[in-house]
Inverse folding.
């Protein structure tokens, strides 16, 4: 970050990732807050999200004209949200959810195209090295499962937004993300021995190494996950 130290930015990003969904749900669930605190929390939420978005954009554009356009774009978004607080929070929550899961669906889905290596296969190979044909088939299927999960997230969000009360939709898009991901992640590990005679096992440190490598690749705009296979 040119204008925000990277350590401070990471702390703000983590805080925003945790606090924004909870704050958005408190704003959208009318029964939790009175009018005054609700409006104050909404203003703070919009400003916090705008600051993170602007910091990310400015870190990736370099031309002064592009920076000015980014500031104007974010300022216009903040103004629109301030004009209609509840609508602004609905739009920001929905767009964030749809963008995140749409990007993940595209990432996992494109890895299943002809000539590509399924993403779960790539991650498993980065940890364990050479994989048996049985594990190759299994990791391809798991990649499909994650694609289905991401697609269902988007479909369910659209369905609830159309048919259910906003508070129900907010619980799904703002509070249920990590629990549902953890359920699928842990469930896959628990059921893996039912599908594989000699299932590969990952340690927490292996997963953290992969996450760190993916984060560095994202920062450098690189496409590959480069992690040395774990030594047996």
């Amino acid at each position: 970050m040119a204008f925000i130290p990277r350590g401070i930015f990471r702390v703000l990003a983590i805080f925003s990732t945790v606090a924004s969904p909870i704050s958005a749900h408190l704003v959208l669930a009318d029964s939790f807050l009175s009018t005054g605190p609700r409006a104050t929390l909404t203003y703070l939420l919009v400003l916090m999200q705008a600051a993170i978005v602007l910091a990310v954009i400015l870190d990736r554009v370099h031309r002064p004209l592009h920076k000015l356009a980014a500031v104007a774009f974010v300022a216009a978004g903040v103004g629109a949200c301030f004009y209609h607080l509840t609508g602004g929070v609905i739009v920001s929550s929905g767009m964030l959810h749809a963008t995140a899961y749409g990007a993940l669906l595209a990432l996992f889905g494109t890895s299943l195209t002809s000539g590509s290596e399924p993403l779960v296969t790539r991650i498993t190979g980065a940890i364990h090295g050479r994989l048996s044909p049985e594990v190759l088939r299994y990791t391809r299927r798991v990649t499909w499962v994650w694609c289905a999960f991401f697609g269902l997230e988007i479909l369910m969000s659209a369905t609830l937004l159309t048919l259910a009360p906003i508070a129900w939709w907010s619980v799904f898009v703002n509070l249920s993300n990590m629990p549902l991901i953890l359920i699928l992640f842990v469930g896959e590990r628990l059921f893996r021995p039912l599908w594989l005679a000699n299932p590969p096992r990952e340690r927490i440190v292996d997963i953290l190494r992969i996450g760190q490598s993916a984060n560095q690749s994202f920062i450098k705009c690189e496409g590959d996950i480069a992690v040395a296979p774990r030594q047996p």
Observations:
- The radius of gyration is 20 Å.
- The first helix runs from residue 6 to 28.
